[in-house]
Amino acid sequence: MLRETLEILRCPYCGGRLELVESMHHRASGDRIDEGILGCHCCIFPVVSGIPVLHLQPAAVEARGHMEQGRPELALRVMAGVSDPAQAEIFERTAASADSTYRELVEALGPNFEGGYFLYRFSDPTFIVADAVVRAVGRAVLAGRRRALDVCGGSGHLTRSLVGLSSPPPVLADLFFPKMWLAQRFTVPGCEAVCCDGNAPLPFARGVFGLAMCSDAFQYIWTKRQFIDEMARVVDPQAGAVLISHTHNQLAWSPSHGQPLSPAGYRDLFETIEPRIFGEAGLFEDVVSGRPLDLTRRDAPETLDHDPALTIVAATPGAAGEVWKAHEIEAPGTPRSGDAPRGRWRINPLYRASPHAGGVRLELAFPTPDYEDEYGACRRYLPEEAAIDQPALAALEAGTLTPPLAALARQRVVLELPERYY
Ligand SMILES: [Zn+2]
Hints:
The protein is of the alpha+beta class. It is about 30% helix and about 20% strand. It contains 15 helices and 19 strands. The protein has a seven-stranded mixed sheet, sandwiched between helices. Helix 1 packs antiparallel against helix 2 and helix 5 (about 125-140) packs across helix 10 (about 280-290). The two termini are about 25 Å apart. The mean pLDDT is about 95. Zinc ion binds near residues 41 and 43.
């Protein structure tokens, strides 16, 4: 973590500022703190592998004990969930190699780690809608001079969408330490990661973010009222926005349902900023048809009641004019400006490739029937079959998006993925 990040961190319990305890074990140099103990008015918290761990769940307390004793490697094992010595050895060996991929580290984290369908994340229908909304709202409120916060951001797949819009770089917050550890290494290098509990007050100062977002996780937060109060507290009260994307709907069943509320229930959570609630189906249609993402729409109550997934946007008065607009969506493959992350163009892993006339023939193949059930709407943009000829294949390898490849990028048959993703 950067030392200057201490300026925006606060203890989730006493609200006090956090400082590095210089008298205890630490490893810090210049502007960075890699290991150590942070103290506030009420407690002390460890910094493990550059990530402050600002909660008191059992693993955090155990890791803090190791750090106090000057055993950072054991603190990392505890937080990574690899306390079993054999698994720890595999993890540490894989982590030590600069060539290891995201996929290899997911495997090295062992059976306790929930990797899910991470490999397919960048083209799943939930992601492409959330990515479009995050970029639209992020561009509207961050303007390259405010910072974004992604709470329950996991391995940072959407935090990556904020790089280049958020300045300073975005903050990724999650309870699950190994996901953020992966995010810092692969998905969002340069983000600041903070390990914290979404069911507790957020460990950030008031008003320091332009955008606070949470995607595909709010239905699992039990303390929903506190969570929304906290999201509203940490954004700029004049020109900030809160975004909850892909939260499930109590009135419409969905896989991995969680404890969702109805649209009316979600609306009642917002006491200080007025929210607008959108059905995800309408936003999805905007994205797949290449229309602007229309945030001027007012979905009818019956539309919201029937949609299994909802997106909630709340904009403060100073941000409203920029947020409630139709936003042009950058097609995938459009050259990005500024310091947006440059990944590596690769064939979407949902395709089975076979050699064909010097190039490859591609066939859409879902990893499991469950995946197809949950994410089958990707058929709206992923063709059943495609082909890449030899010159295009060579261009792809060289990282050059020729016109035929740009057409495949628009269909998401080729994707810009983080370096060493799989
Ligand atoms: Zn405290």
